[in-house]
Amino acid sequence: MQVNHTLQPAEVDLLYRTHHAWLRGWLWARVGCRDNAADLAQDTFVRLLRARQAAPLKQPRAYLSSIARGLMIDQLRRRALERAYLESLAHLPEHEVPSEEARLVILDTLERLDQALHRLKPRARQAFLLAQLDGLSIAQVAERLSVSRATVERDLARALSVCYRLRYADA
């Protein structure tokens, strides 16, 4: 029977002192910005502090780079989402542009929705986006994805459930 082992702060401190410079360099080579690499390295160790590790780390650099890679992907998705949102704002009349505070709330909501939808299976995510963004009916989505209406209904129910949980998670 495997006993869960949560990394202790002293273990994380040792990992930090031993591997932080390496990780920062590894990230810098990938993101091309020293400051961004430093931020991602810090975020990696914060994530490590919160992680529930099943056993002591045998390959710490592989584990750290795996966490950092996920953070880089999240950052790229977040930036693409922000760019798309800002581009859509550019097409609004000036009097309809939301305040900076409202923009931050909207971006945070879009980011959380994006993360939630990416936890769905690709077909369910695609069905949801076709229905919600493209305005396709269930029959049209079923035809487009070459699946039954019942499958689309189940996929949409899963996606809507994710959105509902996201909506009421902070309430």
Listing every helix as H and every strand as E from the N terminus to the C terminus, the arrangement reads HHHHHHH
Give the % helix.
Answer: over 70%
Q: Provide the structure class.
A: mainly alpha
Query: How many discrete domains?
Result: 2
Quaternary status: single chain
Low confidence ranges:
none
Biggest sheet descriptor: none
What is the compact description of this entry?
By secondary structure, this protein is mainly alpha-helical.
Question: What is the strand and helix layout of this fold?
Answer:
Layout: H1 9-31, H2 34-50, H3 60-90, H4 100-117, H5 122-132, H6 138-145, H7 149-169
Helix pairs in contact: 1-2, 1-3, 2-3, 3-4, 4-7, 5-6, 5-7, 6-7
Question: Would you write up a description of this structure?
Answer:
- This protein has 2 domains: 9-85; 98-169, Winged helix-like DNA-binding domain superfamily/Winged helix DNA-binding domain (Arc Repressor Mutant, subunit A, Orthogonal Bundle).
- Helices cover 75% and strands 0% of the residues.
- The mean pLDDT is 87.
- It is globular.
- 11% of the residues are buried.
- The chain has 171 residues and is an all-alpha fold.
Structural descriptors:
7 helices, Arc Repressor Mutant, subunit A, mainly alpha, globular
